[in-house]
Amino acid sequence: MTALLRYQAALLLRSQRWLPPVILYAVFLGVGVQSGQPVLDSLGYTAAALLPVAAWLVRICVTGEPAAARACVTAARGPARAHLAALLTALAVAALLGTAATLVVTVISRHATNDHRFPVSPVQAGAAGLLATLACALLGSAVGALTNRPLLRSPGRAVPMMLLAALLAMVVGGSPAHAAVSGLVTGSESGRVPVSPLPLAAAALLTAAAFTVACALDGRRSS
Fold it and tell me: CB under 8 Å to 51, separation ≥6 — which residues?
């Protein structure tokens, strides 16, 4: 699996197809996050913006490999393992991107509630923001896994479904991403930092299930 992950990472970097989602994420943060804003509000925005970016990165990884190269990799390692390596590569890139953004936003933001009445610990805020960001990276990857190849092969169907699913994953009550981001926004009002691993754990379980379904289906359709 290590060799497959290295191969997928090299393929992604050389293709430069990662640039549009990364640039879009940077633009989102540049517009929505300003120095001196309340830290928890800014971290909530940082986490929420990562979810569609993670789904986009999954699409890039599962559709960017040339057909001939994919056939060789599939024959050597099996279709399920090859597809899993692409999904994990996208997830890793999204997680690294979100972690870096969380660190920067934690440093430049005001460590106080949104009414500036109560202080907020930067360490606790950074930890809460990182948990929310990773939850959104996981759920975005799950969305990408279920709305692209092998489940949806046509771009005309896959892309709109991916965008709609990413939106629903963020706004629907009960979603781990919604719970994580809402906790940050509520904490910015009350001053209580929501350092809870529950949304992250729920997102991890959903992502594991989505990856399992996608890999199993890819194996069946390739056989």
Answer: 136, 137, 139, 140, 143, 166, 169, 170, 177
Binning pLDDT at 50, 70 and 90, where does residue 78 land?
confident
Q: Give the chain's length.
A: 223
The whole-angstrom separation of Cα 108 and Cα 55 is 27
Omega before 155 cis (within 30°)? no
What is the mean predicted confidence (pLDDT) over 183-209? Answer: 92
Q: Which helix (H) or strand (E) holds 113?
A: none
Give dist(CA 180, CA 129) in Å, integer.
9
DSSP 33: -
pTM: 0.92
What are the start-end ranges of the H helices in the chain? 2-15, 19-32, 39-63, 67-77, 79-108, 122-146, 155-171, 176-190, 198-222
DSSP-derived secondary structure for 147-202: SSTTT---HHHHHHHHHHHHHHHHHSTT-HHHHHHHHHHHHHHHS-----SHHHHH
In the chain, what is the straight-line distance between the N-terminal and C-terminal CA atoms, in Å? 20
Confidence of residue 138 (pLDDT cuts 50, 70, 90): very high
pLDDT band at 223 (very low <50, low <70, confident <90, very high): very low
How far is it, in rounded angstroms, from Cα 169 to Cα 137?
11
